[in-house]
Amino acid sequence: MIIAANLKTNLTRSATHEYIKQLQTCVQNSSQEVLVFPATSSLDGYDTKITIGAQNAYPVEHGAFTGEIGLDHLNEFGIKTILIGHSERRHILGESQEFIAKKFDYFKEQGFKIVYCVGEPLAVRESSKEEMLTYIYNQYEGIDTEYENLVIAYEPVWAIGTGKVPTLEDIQDIHKELKKKSSAPLLYGGSVKVNNVKDILKVENVDGVLVGSAALYADHFCSMIQAAEELGKN
Ligand SMILES: O=C[C@H](O)COP(=O)(O)O
């Protein structure tokens, strides 16, 4: 399974080094695929079997794009994994589907593993299932769903950082629908914690989890990796 931590705007570079060090023991004998997305300023050359990915980068090698980093900055640390389409970049930082698709194409051309996020806000969730699926399917616009290095993360926006989680039946239902769009591994994200991770991982068509706040604690993230290991679902 894929167990991924999105550290968002948390943990400085030295704190991230300490964090990765703490994770070493639990990944050593684990057969899970563990990904960590540190803050941009915490990207570095980490000596670990954990895959380090970028939360964001501009689709360019380098150039005049104030505040952004490009491919050269990722290459410096051998980073070949990137998160694209996260709801915080869509809704807070205003990334359009058109720009997201452009970013996707660029990093696909570079052969990156892309963890591509989709998910609906609460108002959409509270509408009909059909409207909800249409909303989510629009987030596939311009995206090559057959790209061999693609991982999709379904993250209902209303579940992110709120402690609210869809029912297991709802997760199963939406994952079943999304698998029809792409056979890529499909992660669930949104208020995944130590106490619910096992039940979520057991759901059909859940191929892993993308964890935010609970992953900030190395011991909690380790417990989630161990939970996946215990389930023996690879
Ligand atoms: O990328 C991770 C998600 O946004 C989930 O965040 P959360 O676990 O804090 O709800």
Task: Walk me through the structure.
It comes from Sulfurimonas autotrophica (strain ATCC BAA-671 / DSM 16294 / JCM 11897 / OK10). Its main location: cytoplasm. It catalyses: D-glyceraldehyde 3-phosphate = dihydroxyacetone phosphate. One of its GO terms (biological process) is glycerol catabolic process. Homodimer. Helix 1 runs parallel beside helix 9. Strands 3-2-1-8-7-6-5-4 form an eight-stranded parallel beta sheet. It contains nine helices and eight strands. It is α/β, with parallel strands linked by helices. The mean pLDDT is 96. The N and C termini lie close together (4 Å). It has a single domain (2-231), classed as Alpha-Beta Barrel (TIM Barrel). The protein has helices at residues 13-28, 71-75, 87-92, 97-109, 122-125, 129-138, 168-181, 197-202, 218-231, and strands at 2-6, 33-37, 51-52, 81-84, 113-118, 150-154, 186-189, 208-211. Strand 6, helix 7 and strand 7 form a beta-alpha-beta unit. Bound molecules: glyceraldehyde-3-phosphate (G3H). Glyceraldehyde-3-phosphate is lined by residues 6, 86, 155, 160-161, 189-192, 210-214.
Oligomer: single chain
Low-confidence stretches: none
Distinct compounds present: glyceraldehyde-3-phosphate
Can you tell me the CATH superfamily?
A: Aldolase class I
Number of domains: 1
- From the 3D structure, determine the CATH topology: TIM Barrel
- The rounded distance between the terminal residues' Cα atoms is 4 Å
If you average the pLDDT, what whole number results?
A: 96
Q: Helical element count?
A: 9
- Summarize the amount of helix as a percent range: 25-40%
Task: Tell me the fraction of residues in β-strands, as a range.
Answer: 5-15%
**CATH class, anyone?**
Alpha Beta
Coarse morphology:
globular
Classify the secondary structure makeup into a structural class: alpha/beta
Q: Give the biggest beta sheet.
A: 8 strands, parallel
CATH architecture: Alpha-Beta Barrel
**H and E order:** EHEEHEHHEHHEHEHEH
Largest sheet: spatial strand order: 3-2-1-8-7-6-5-4
Enzyme class: isomerase
Active site: 86 (electrophile), 155 (proton acceptor)
Pfam family, one: TIM
GO molecular function, one term: triose-phosphate isomerase activity
